[in-house]
Amino acid sequence: MIDSLTPLRPLFDTLDNVSEAPEPVWQHSSSFLSLDYRYAMSFLKSYDGSQATFNAYRCEVERLLQWSWHVSDKSVCSLRRVDIEAYLKFCQKPPENWISIKKVPRFITESNLRIPNLAWRPFVVTLPKSSLSQSQQPNIKHYRLSETALKQIFAVLSSFYNYLIQEEATEINPIGHIRQKSKFLRKHQGKPKIRRLSELQWSYVIETAEMMANNDHDKHERTLFMLSALYSMYLRISELAASARWTPTMNNFRSDHDGNWWFTVVGKGNKERDIAVSDAMLASLKRWRTHLNLMPLPTPADKTPLLPRVKGYGPISNTSFIRKIVQKCFNVTIERLNHDGFADDAIALSEATVHWLRHTGISDDVKRRPREHVRDDAGHSSGAITDRYIDIELRERHASAKKKLIKN
Fold first, then answer.
1. Do residues 328 and 318 lie in contact, with contact meaning Cβ atoms separated by under 8 Å?
2. What is the largest CA-CA distance in the chain?
3. Cα gap 72→279, rounded to integer Å
4. 389: Cβ–Cβ under 8 A, 6 or more apart, which residues?
5. Are 68 and 93 in contact (CB under 8 A)?
6. Distance CA 333, CA 206 (A)
7. How much of the chain exceeds pLDDT 70, in percent?
8. How far apart are the first and last CA of the chain?
């Protein structure tokens, strides 16, 4: 077992830097550390096509290695069902010196060298956005592992052990041997709740964006175009920002022989798809391009970044920057909702994230478009995923129950 007083050190750098990182120098005699590290590194590199996927898998694999080495004193290749069950219980209540109250980079640069950040911890306390807006501070004692996070542990580690089996590093997948997953995961009856804006909230949000753009073109035309694209074309934030995987440009909008416009995007899983562009979205594109002093519609040769940087040249690549722009619009909308007497809607909007706009666009469209059309535009792998967004039957179900009597 590694000395419990030894500071926890991150193992894997960012996707851009992980290939350049040398293997850590082990300061202890356990012979399996280097082999575990190499297997894990090889596994993670197989997901270098998507930064979001790489980050999610890195988090779970790194946690398992830290626990296996620091707590269990075993190679990850030798862990069995009882070990994984112990690990899951550990994740539900880790010691305080494994928890941080804020996210920090795993590695930092000093003298042109990437070195481990000793402020990093495997677990982080997170607060709801509404709590942050009320200036509440995170507390290590309030750490909770969500149901979603537990499901991610099961999914990622199962993939990791299937990889180890293929590499003949182990013979079993201990995740698959946990028969009573209900001890850790709750079963939910019916469809999962979709995090989306109500019709009132969305109408206020887009109206706010229009008001902001009309009052300050230079600053907020970008806001209006972003919100329109996220809602109308169901874009993920990673599909709007430039990355090593792809850079959205104006000529990703194109017209076909019938004069219909499409937007080509490279999305989740590095999959390319074509999205049907509505007349309203096309009008939004024309307004945005006119603001940029471009012709109203792009040509096939127009490689101008879809979202140019505010300062300098090139496309916006920082998703945090996009989140800040959208959040500013949300904040102004919350003030308007409160002013107009919609306090409950304002409180609910305080929890919203950028991804809710994609959910809202899909949920609104499945009410009026064929499910298969929405499925393909959203990039869903099956119609069953799209079905989660259909809440019409829930309204009918509630309407039929609304006037039930308790006393006849």
1. no
2. 80
3. 59
4. 194, 359, 362, 363, 366, 374
5. no
6. 9
7. 84
8. 69
The 10s digit of each residue's pLDDT in 208-229 is 999 999 999 999 999 999 999 9
Distance CA 132, CA 85 (A): 33
Whole-number Å distance between alpha carbons of 159 and 163:
6
* Alpha-carbon separation of residue 351 from 147, 226, 248, 297 (angstroms): 18, 19, 28, 36
CATH 1.10.443.10 fits 199-398, yes or no: yes
**Residue pair 25/17 in contact by the 8 Å Cβ criterion:** no
According to DSSP, residue 249 is labeled B
The neighbouring-strand residues paired with 315 are: 308
- Is the C-alpha dihedral spanning 338, 358, 386, 268 positive or negative? negative
Label residue 198 exposed, middle or buried (CB < 10 Å: 0-12, 13-18, 19+): middle
pLDDT the model gives residue 398: 57
Strand order in the sheet with 253-255: 253-255, 261-266, 272-276
CA–CA gap between residue 152 and residue 146 (Å, rounded): 10
For CA atoms 80, 81, 86, 88, give the dihedral sign.
positive
Q: With contact defined as beta carbons under 8 Å apart, do 8 and 94 qualify?
A: no
Neighbours of 253 (CB within 10 A): 22
In order, the DSSP letters of 278-324 are PHHHHHHHHHHHHHTT--SS--TT---BSSB-SSSSSB---HHHHHH
Q: Exposed e or buried b for every residue in 298-318, given b needs 16+ CB within 10 A?
A: beeebeebbbeeeeeeebbee
The full set of domain ranges for the chain reads: 18-183, 199-398
Task: State the Cα–Cα distance between residues 19 and 37, nearest whole angstrom.
Answer: 13
Distance from C-alpha of 344 to C-alpha of 137, rounded to nearest angstrom: 23
Query: Quick check: 158 and 146 in contact, CB under 8 A?
Result: no
pLDDT in tens, 154-192: 999 999 999 999 899 999 899 987 866 666 665 555 555
The position carrying tokens 């980079």 is: 105
